[in-house]
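Our preliminary data section would be incomplete without showing what the modeling component actually yields. Below, a chain of 454 amino acids is followed by its predicted structure, encoded as C-alpha coordinates that our downstream tools consume directly.
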Amino acid sequence: MDDKQRIQKFIPIMNEISPTFCMAKWHHTTIYLQTGETHSCYHPAPHAIPLDELKDNPSALHNTSQKKSERAEMLDGKKPSGCNYCWNIEAMGDDFISDRKERNASIFTEQRFEDIKAAPLANVNPQYIEVSFGNECNFKCGYCHPKHSSSYYKEIKDFGPYDMVKNHRNDINWFTTYEEETNPYVEAWWKWWPEVSKTLTILRITGGEPLLQQSTWRLLDDLEVNPLPNLEININSNFGVKPVLIRRLTQKINSLVAQGKIKDFKLFTSVDTWGKPAEYSRTGLDLAIWEENLNTYLTETNLPVTFMITFNILTVTTFQKLLEKILEWRAKYNGTNQNKWQRIRFDTPFLKEPLQYDMNILPKDEFMPYMQSHLQFIKDNLNDKDRTKFSELEYEKFLRVVKYMETTFYSLEKLVEGQRDFFNWFNEYDRRRGTDFLEVFPEMENFFNCCRII
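Predicted structure:
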Protein backbone atom coordinates (compact mmCIF):
# COMPACT_ATOMS: atom_id res chain seq x y z
CA MET A 1 0.00 0.00 0.00
CA ASP A 2 1.49 3.39 -1.00
CA ASP A 3 1.18 6.58 1.06
CA LYS A 4 -1.81 7.89 -0.87
CA GLN A 5 -3.77 4.64 -0.43
CA ARG A 6 -2.87 4.57 3.26
CA ILE A 7 -4.22 8.08 3.74
CA GLN A 8 -7.42 7.45 1.77
CA LYS A 9 -8.17 4.38 3.90
CA PHE A 10 -8.75 6.61 6.93
CA ILE A 11 -11.16 9.07 5.29
CA PRO A 12 -14.34 7.00 5.91
CA ILE A 13 -13.16 6.22 9.46
CA MET A 14 -12.85 9.92 10.31
CA ASN A 15 -16.19 10.64 8.65
CA GLU A 16 -17.80 8.57 11.41
CA ILE A 17 -17.32 11.65 13.60
CA SER A 18 -17.86 14.28 10.92
CA PRO A 19 -16.75 15.14 7.35
CA THR A 20 -14.69 18.07 8.71
CA PHE A 21 -13.12 16.25 11.66
CA CYS A 22 -9.40 16.80 12.08
CA MET A 23 -7.64 14.88 14.83
CA ALA A 24 -4.87 17.48 14.79
CA LYS A 25 -7.21 19.90 16.59
CA TRP A 26 -7.06 17.50 19.55
CA HIS A 27 -3.69 15.79 19.28
CA HIS A 28 -1.41 18.34 17.59
CA THR A 29 -0.34 21.66 19.03
CA THR A 30 2.24 24.34 18.36
CA ILE A 31 3.00 26.57 21.35
CA TYR A 32 4.95 29.83 21.10
CA LEU A 33 6.06 30.38 24.68
CA GLN A 34 7.85 33.65 23.84
CA THR A 35 4.49 35.31 23.06
CA GLY A 36 2.01 32.98 24.79
CA GLU A 37 0.22 31.77 21.65
CA THR A 38 -0.89 28.45 20.23
CA HIS A 39 -2.53 26.73 17.27
CA SER A 40 -2.97 23.10 16.28
CA CYS A 41 -1.07 23.29 13.01
CA TYR A 42 0.69 26.06 11.12
CA HIS A 43 -2.24 26.86 8.79
CA PRO A 44 -4.60 28.65 11.25
CA ALA A 45 -3.25 31.85 12.77
CA PRO A 46 -1.97 31.45 16.35
CA HIS A 47 -4.22 32.73 19.12
CA ALA A 48 -3.45 33.98 22.61
CA ILE A 49 -3.25 31.63 25.58
CA PRO A 50 -4.99 33.47 28.46
CA LEU A 51 -2.71 33.47 31.49
CA ASP A 52 -5.68 33.03 33.82
CA GLU A 53 -6.49 29.70 32.13
CA LEU A 54 -3.04 28.44 33.13
CA LYS A 55 -3.38 29.08 36.85
CA ASP A 56 -4.84 25.69 37.70
CA ASN A 57 -4.42 23.99 34.33
CA PRO A 58 -1.01 24.15 32.62
CA SER A 59 -2.49 21.99 29.81
CA ALA A 60 -4.27 25.19 28.71
CA LEU A 61 -1.05 25.83 26.80
CA HIS A 62 -2.88 23.56 24.33
CA ASN A 63 -6.48 23.22 25.57
CA THR A 64 -7.53 26.84 25.25
CA SER A 65 -11.17 27.91 25.22
CA GLN A 66 -10.81 29.01 21.59
CA LYS A 67 -9.48 25.64 20.50
CA LYS A 68 -12.30 23.86 22.31
CA SER A 69 -14.79 26.04 20.42
CA GLU A 70 -13.19 25.06 17.10
CA ARG A 71 -13.33 21.38 18.10
CA ALA A 72 -17.06 21.78 18.72
CA GLU A 73 -17.48 23.26 15.22
CA MET A 74 -15.76 20.27 13.66
CA LEU A 75 -17.92 17.85 15.63
CA ASP A 76 -20.94 19.57 14.05
CA GLY A 77 -19.51 19.20 10.55
CA LYS A 78 -18.62 22.88 10.29
CA LYS A 79 -15.41 24.28 8.83
CA PRO A 80 -13.45 26.60 11.16
CA SER A 81 -12.29 29.53 9.06
CA GLY A 82 -8.71 29.25 10.26
CA CYS A 83 -8.44 25.89 8.51
CA ASN A 84 -9.12 27.29 5.01
CA TYR A 85 -5.79 25.99 3.68
CA CYS A 86 -7.10 22.42 3.86
CA TRP A 87 -10.65 23.30 2.78
CA ASN A 88 -9.19 24.93 -0.37
CA ILE A 89 -7.07 21.86 -1.15
CA GLU A 90 -10.04 19.54 -0.70
CA ALA A 91 -12.23 21.76 -2.90
CA MET A 92 -9.91 20.94 -5.81
CA GLY A 93 -11.16 17.32 -5.81
CA ASP A 94 -11.09 14.03 -3.96
CA ASP A 95 -7.72 13.08 -5.44
CA PHE A 96 -5.97 15.98 -3.70
CA ILE A 97 -4.57 15.04 -0.30
CA SER A 98 -4.96 17.85 2.22
CA ASP A 99 -2.89 18.07 5.38
CA ARG A 100 -6.07 17.33 7.34
CA LYS A 101 -6.41 13.94 5.67
CA GLU A 102 -2.70 13.20 5.96
CA ARG A 103 -2.60 14.04 9.65
CA ASN A 104 -5.75 12.09 10.45
CA ALA A 105 -4.03 9.03 8.99
CA SER A 106 -0.75 9.65 10.78
CA ILE A 107 -2.24 10.38 14.22
CA PHE A 108 -4.96 7.70 14.27
CA THR A 109 -5.03 4.98 16.90
CA GLU A 110 -8.13 3.17 18.07
CA GLN A 111 -7.59 4.46 21.62
CA ARG A 112 -7.24 8.13 20.61
CA PHE A 113 -10.25 7.84 18.32
CA GLU A 114 -12.44 6.23 20.99
CA ASP A 115 -11.30 8.71 23.67
CA ILE A 116 -12.38 11.65 21.50
CA LYS A 117 -15.74 10.05 20.76
CA ALA A 118 -16.30 9.41 24.49
CA ALA A 119 -15.28 12.89 25.73
CA PRO A 120 -14.85 15.16 22.72
CA LEU A 121 -14.41 18.43 24.64
CA ALA A 122 -12.25 17.21 27.52
CA ASN A 123 -8.70 18.43 28.09
CA VAL A 124 -6.31 16.41 25.96
CA ASN A 125 -2.65 15.59 26.40
CA PRO A 126 -1.69 15.75 22.74
CA GLN A 127 0.23 13.12 20.81
CA TYR A 128 2.37 15.80 19.09
CA ILE A 129 3.71 19.08 20.46
CA GLU A 130 5.75 21.69 18.63
CA VAL A 131 7.14 24.18 21.11
CA SER A 132 9.13 27.39 20.76
CA PHE A 133 10.96 28.39 23.91
CA GLY A 134 11.99 31.82 22.61
CA ASN A 135 12.50 34.05 19.58
CA GLU A 136 16.31 34.24 19.68
CA CYS A 137 17.43 33.75 16.08
CA ASN A 138 20.38 34.71 13.90
CA PHE A 139 18.23 34.83 10.73
CA LYS A 140 15.54 37.30 9.62
CA CYS A 141 13.75 35.55 6.77
CA GLY A 142 11.62 38.03 4.84
CA TYR A 143 8.26 36.37 5.37
CA CYS A 144 9.00 35.58 9.04
CA HIS A 145 8.06 37.96 11.85
CA PRO A 146 9.77 39.74 14.76
CA LYS A 147 7.74 37.52 17.12
CA HIS A 148 9.83 34.59 15.91
CA SER A 149 13.19 36.24 15.30
CA SER A 150 15.17 38.46 17.64
CA SER A 151 17.24 39.65 14.64
CA TYR A 152 14.06 40.75 12.85
CA TYR A 153 12.84 42.42 16.06
CA LYS A 154 16.08 44.40 16.24
CA GLU A 155 15.68 45.53 12.61
CA ILE A 156 12.21 46.91 13.34
CA LYS A 157 13.50 48.68 16.45
CA ASP A 158 16.30 50.23 14.37
CA PHE A 159 14.35 51.15 11.23
CA GLY A 160 10.71 51.08 12.28
CA PRO A 161 7.95 49.00 10.67
CA TYR A 162 7.58 48.56 6.92
CA ASP A 163 4.94 51.29 6.85
CA MET A 164 5.13 51.63 3.07
CA VAL A 165 3.14 48.39 2.61
CA LYS A 166 -0.33 47.30 3.60
CA ASN A 167 0.70 43.71 4.33
CA HIS A 168 3.40 42.52 6.73
CA ARG A 169 4.29 45.89 8.24
CA ASN A 170 5.94 44.04 11.15
CA ASP A 171 4.88 46.47 13.84
CA ILE A 172 6.17 45.37 17.22
CA ASN A 173 4.19 47.60 19.59
CA TRP A 174 1.12 45.33 19.74
CA PHE A 175 2.69 42.23 21.28
CA THR A 176 4.98 41.29 24.13
CA THR A 177 7.84 38.85 23.91
CA TYR A 178 9.04 37.35 27.17
CA GLU A 179 12.64 36.67 28.09
CA GLU A 180 13.16 32.92 28.30
CA GLU A 181 14.42 32.99 31.91
CA THR A 182 11.40 34.92 33.33
CA ASN A 183 8.63 33.78 30.99
CA PRO A 184 5.41 32.63 32.78
CA TYR A 185 4.57 30.45 29.78
CA VAL A 186 7.92 28.68 30.01
CA GLU A 187 7.21 28.18 33.72
CA ALA A 188 3.82 26.62 32.85
CA TRP A 189 5.57 24.37 30.32
CA TRP A 190 7.88 22.86 32.93
CA LYS A 191 4.87 22.35 35.23
CA TRP A 192 3.00 20.52 32.46
CA TRP A 193 6.00 18.55 31.19
CA PRO A 194 5.99 15.69 33.80
CA GLU A 195 2.34 14.95 32.99
CA VAL A 196 2.22 15.48 29.23
CA SER A 197 5.48 13.61 28.65
CA LYS A 198 3.82 10.40 29.87
CA THR A 199 1.66 10.08 26.75
CA LEU A 200 3.50 12.30 24.27
CA THR A 201 4.90 10.49 21.25
CA ILE A 202 6.51 13.38 19.30
CA LEU A 203 8.03 16.59 20.66
CA ARG A 204 9.22 19.07 18.05
CA ILE A 205 11.31 22.02 19.21
CA THR A 206 11.20 25.08 16.99
CA GLY A 207 12.17 28.73 17.29
CA GLY A 208 13.52 31.24 16.74
CA GLU A 209 16.56 29.06 16.48
CA PRO A 210 16.25 26.35 19.15
CA LEU A 211 19.98 25.60 19.27
CA LEU A 212 20.46 29.15 20.62
CA GLN A 213 17.97 28.64 23.47
CA GLN A 214 18.89 27.17 26.84
CA SER A 215 15.57 25.37 27.34
CA THR A 216 16.39 23.13 24.37
CA TRP A 217 19.61 21.97 25.97
CA ARG A 218 17.89 21.69 29.38
CA LEU A 219 15.33 19.33 27.87
CA LEU A 220 17.97 17.20 26.14
CA ASP A 221 19.95 17.05 29.39
CA ASP A 222 16.79 16.07 31.28
CA LEU A 223 16.25 13.15 28.90
CA GLU A 224 19.67 11.79 29.85
CA VAL A 225 18.50 11.60 33.48
CA ASN A 226 14.80 10.85 32.89
CA PRO A 227 14.60 8.78 29.70
CA LEU A 228 11.44 8.63 27.62
CA PRO A 229 11.99 5.58 25.40
CA ASN A 230 8.62 6.04 23.64
CA LEU A 231 9.27 9.66 22.71
CA GLU A 232 10.50 10.92 19.34
CA ILE A 233 12.33 14.25 19.45
CA ASN A 234 12.33 16.58 16.43
CA ILE A 235 14.21 19.87 16.14
CA ASN A 236 13.77 22.65 13.58
CA SER A 237 17.14 24.28 13.02
CA ASN A 238 18.04 26.88 10.41
CA PHE A 239 21.44 25.12 10.13
CA GLY A 240 23.07 28.52 10.07
CA VAL A 241 24.47 28.36 13.60
CA LYS A 242 28.13 27.92 14.48
CA PRO A 243 29.31 24.43 13.51
CA VAL A 244 30.26 23.70 17.14
CA LEU A 245 26.55 23.68 18.04
CA ILE A 246 25.77 21.12 15.33
CA ARG A 247 28.59 18.93 16.61
CA ARG A 248 27.26 19.28 20.15
CA LEU A 249 23.78 18.31 18.91
CA THR A 250 24.99 15.24 17.03
CA GLN A 251 26.91 14.01 20.08
CA LYS A 252 23.89 14.51 22.35
CA ILE A 253 21.45 12.84 19.95
CA ASN A 254 23.74 9.91 19.17
CA SER A 255 24.01 9.25 22.91
CA LEU A 256 20.25 9.46 23.56
CA VAL A 257 19.36 7.22 20.62
CA ALA A 258 22.13 4.64 21.22
CA GLN A 259 21.13 4.22 24.86
CA GLY A 260 17.43 3.96 24.07
CA LYS A 261 16.63 7.04 26.13
CA ILE A 262 14.45 8.34 23.31
CA LYS A 263 12.71 6.39 20.59
CA ASP A 264 13.98 8.39 17.62
CA PHE A 265 15.19 11.78 16.47
CA LYS A 266 14.44 13.82 13.34
CA LEU A 267 15.89 17.10 12.23
CA PHE A 268 14.06 19.66 10.06
CA THR A 269 15.63 22.62 8.33
CA SER A 270 14.20 25.38 6.17
CA VAL A 271 15.42 26.20 2.69
CA ASP A 272 13.27 27.38 -0.24
CA THR A 273 15.73 27.55 -3.13
CA TRP A 274 19.51 27.58 -3.64
CA GLY A 275 22.38 29.93 -4.39
CA LYS A 276 22.09 33.71 -4.11
CA PRO A 277 18.26 33.58 -4.15
CA ALA A 278 18.32 31.45 -0.99
CA GLU A 279 20.66 33.84 0.84
CA TYR A 280 18.56 36.81 -0.33
CA SER A 281 15.35 35.23 0.98
CA ARG A 282 16.83 34.30 4.37
CA THR A 283 18.98 37.16 5.59
CA GLY A 284 21.74 35.69 7.74
CA LEU A 285 22.04 32.49 5.70
CA ASP A 286 25.56 31.57 4.60
CA LEU A 287 25.21 28.55 2.33
CA ALA A 288 28.81 27.47 2.89
CA ILE A 289 28.18 27.16 6.66
CA TRP A 290 24.73 25.67 6.03
CA GLU A 291 26.09 22.92 3.79
CA GLU A 292 28.98 22.25 6.18
CA ASN A 293 26.47 21.75 8.98
CA LEU A 294 24.32 19.52 6.78
CA ASN A 295 27.36 17.39 5.99
CA THR A 296 28.37 17.17 9.66
CA TYR A 297 24.91 16.05 10.69
CA LEU A 298 24.53 13.47 7.91
CA THR A 299 28.02 12.00 8.28
CA GLU A 300 28.15 11.95 12.10
CA THR A 301 24.66 10.48 12.53
CA ASN A 302 22.73 7.84 10.67
CA LEU A 303 19.51 9.87 10.77
CA PRO A 304 17.36 11.70 8.21
CA VAL A 305 16.87 15.42 7.59
CA THR A 306 13.75 17.05 6.15
CA PHE A 307 13.77 20.30 4.19
CA MET A 308 10.76 22.50 4.89
CA ILE A 309 10.35 24.31 1.58
CA THR A 310 7.94 27.23 1.95
CA PHE A 311 7.01 27.75 -1.69
CA ASN A 312 6.68 31.48 -2.31
CA ILE A 313 7.08 34.11 -4.99
CA LEU A 314 10.90 33.99 -4.80
CA THR A 315 10.89 30.22 -5.33
CA VAL A 316 8.90 30.23 -8.58
CA THR A 317 11.78 30.97 -10.95
CA THR A 318 14.59 29.31 -8.99
CA PHE A 319 13.20 26.07 -7.53
CA GLN A 320 15.03 23.74 -9.89
CA LYS A 321 18.36 24.79 -8.36
CA LEU A 322 17.23 23.27 -5.07
CA LEU A 323 15.74 20.19 -6.74
CA GLU A 324 19.10 19.52 -8.36
CA LYS A 325 20.84 19.83 -4.98
CA ILE A 326 18.35 17.41 -3.42
CA LEU A 327 19.24 14.80 -6.04
CA GLU A 328 22.94 15.47 -5.40
CA TRP A 329 22.52 15.01 -1.64
CA ARG A 330 20.41 11.90 -2.09
CA ALA A 331 23.12 10.31 -4.19
CA LYS A 332 25.80 11.32 -1.68
CA TYR A 333 24.15 10.46 1.65
CA ASN A 334 21.70 7.64 1.02
CA GLY A 335 24.31 4.95 0.54
CA THR A 336 23.88 1.82 -1.55
CA ASN A 337 21.21 -0.02 0.46
CA GLN A 338 18.10 0.73 -1.57
CA ASN A 339 15.80 -0.86 1.02
CA LYS A 340 16.64 1.71 3.69
CA TRP A 341 14.44 4.76 4.25
CA GLN A 342 15.05 8.10 2.57
CA ARG A 343 17.54 10.31 4.47
CA ILE A 344 16.99 13.47 2.39
CA ARG A 345 13.33 14.42 2.67
CA PHE A 346 11.34 17.49 1.70
CA ASP A 347 7.86 18.96 1.74
CA THR A 348 6.44 21.84 -0.33
CA PRO A 349 3.68 23.75 1.47
CA PHE A 350 2.82 26.99 -0.29
CA LEU A 351 2.76 30.43 1.31
CA LYS A 352 -0.34 32.62 1.20
CA GLU A 353 0.68 35.49 3.47
CA PRO A 354 2.08 38.09 3.34
CA LEU A 355 0.54 38.97 -0.01
CA GLN A 356 3.76 40.31 -1.53
CA TYR A 357 5.27 36.81 -1.14
CA ASP A 358 2.25 35.06 -2.67
CA MET A 359 3.06 33.47 -6.05
CA ASN A 360 -0.48 34.27 -7.26
CA ILE A 361 0.29 37.96 -7.75
CA LEU A 362 2.58 36.93 -10.63
CA PRO A 363 1.29 37.05 -14.24
CA LYS A 364 0.29 33.48 -15.11
CA ASP A 365 1.39 33.60 -18.75
CA GLU A 366 4.94 34.64 -17.85
CA PHE A 367 5.55 32.52 -14.75
CA MET A 368 3.48 29.31 -15.04
CA PRO A 369 6.07 27.89 -17.52
CA TYR A 370 8.62 27.92 -14.66
CA MET A 371 6.22 25.91 -12.52
CA GLN A 372 5.55 23.39 -15.27
CA SER A 373 9.29 23.06 -15.84
CA HIS A 374 9.96 22.29 -12.16
CA LEU A 375 7.14 19.73 -12.16
CA GLN A 376 8.54 18.12 -15.30
CA PHE A 377 12.00 17.96 -13.72
CA ILE A 378 10.56 16.01 -10.79
CA LYS A 379 8.66 13.74 -13.17
CA ASP A 380 11.77 13.12 -15.30
CA ASN A 381 13.63 12.05 -12.15
CA LEU A 382 10.82 10.06 -10.53
CA ASN A 383 11.42 6.52 -9.36
CA ASP A 384 9.78 5.18 -6.20
CA LYS A 385 12.26 2.31 -6.08
CA ASP A 386 15.38 4.47 -6.23
CA ARG A 387 16.23 6.58 -3.17
CA THR A 388 18.40 8.91 -5.24
CA LYS A 389 15.31 10.03 -7.20
CA PHE A 390 11.95 11.64 -6.38
CA SER A 391 8.89 9.76 -5.13
CA GLU A 392 5.36 9.69 -6.49
CA LEU A 393 4.07 11.37 -3.32
CA GLU A 394 6.63 14.19 -3.67
CA TYR A 395 5.49 14.66 -7.26
CA GLU A 396 1.83 14.78 -6.22
CA LYS A 397 2.51 17.24 -3.41
CA PHE A 398 4.24 19.63 -5.78
CA LEU A 399 1.52 19.05 -8.39
CA ARG A 400 -0.98 20.52 -5.95
CA VAL A 401 1.24 23.62 -5.64
CA VAL A 402 1.29 23.96 -9.43
CA LYS A 403 -2.47 23.45 -9.68
CA TYR A 404 -3.06 25.95 -6.91
CA MET A 405 -1.12 28.64 -8.77
CA GLU A 406 -2.70 27.67 -12.08
CA THR A 407 -6.28 27.92 -10.80
CA THR A 408 -6.09 30.80 -8.31
CA PHE A 409 -7.10 34.19 -9.71
CA TYR A 410 -7.33 37.28 -7.55
CA SER A 411 -9.53 40.29 -8.07
CA LEU A 412 -7.96 43.29 -9.75
CA GLU A 413 -8.05 45.12 -6.42
CA LYS A 414 -6.13 42.36 -4.63
CA LEU A 415 -3.60 42.04 -7.48
CA VAL A 416 -2.90 45.77 -7.43
CA GLU A 417 -2.50 45.69 -3.65
CA GLY A 418 -0.12 42.73 -3.78
CA GLN A 419 1.96 44.06 -6.65
CA ARG A 420 2.23 47.52 -5.14
CA ASP A 421 3.34 45.97 -1.85
CA PHE A 422 5.78 43.73 -3.74
CA PHE A 423 7.72 46.67 -5.15
CA ASN A 424 7.53 48.82 -2.02
CA TRP A 425 8.52 45.89 0.21
CA PHE A 426 11.56 44.70 -1.72
CA ASN A 427 12.70 48.23 -2.49
CA GLU A 428 12.78 48.95 1.26
CA TYR A 429 14.13 45.47 2.03
CA ASP A 430 17.13 46.20 -0.22
CA ARG A 431 17.70 49.58 1.41
CA ARG A 432 17.71 48.15 4.93
CA ARG A 433 19.67 45.00 4.23
CA GLY A 434 22.15 46.16 1.59
CA THR A 435 20.81 43.77 -1.06
CA ASP A 436 19.80 44.13 -4.71
CA PHE A 437 16.66 42.31 -5.85
CA LEU A 438 17.26 42.64 -9.59
CA GLU A 439 20.86 41.44 -9.31
CA VAL A 440 19.62 38.23 -7.69
CA PHE A 441 16.40 37.81 -9.72
CA PRO A 442 17.11 39.36 -13.17
CA GLU A 443 14.41 37.18 -14.72
CA MET A 444 11.81 39.11 -12.66
CA GLU A 445 12.90 42.55 -13.88
CA ASN A 446 9.84 43.13 -16.08
CA PHE A 447 7.46 42.21 -13.25
CA PHE A 448 9.43 44.30 -10.73
CA ASN A 449 9.29 47.37 -12.96
CA CYS A 450 5.58 46.90 -13.67
CA CYS A 451 4.95 46.81 -9.93
CA ARG A 452 7.01 49.99 -9.57
CA ILE A 453 4.53 52.09 -11.57
CA ILE A 454 1.27 50.72 -10.10
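The mean pLDDT is 95. The longest strand covers residues 228-236. Preliminary results of this kind motivate Aim 1 of the renewal.
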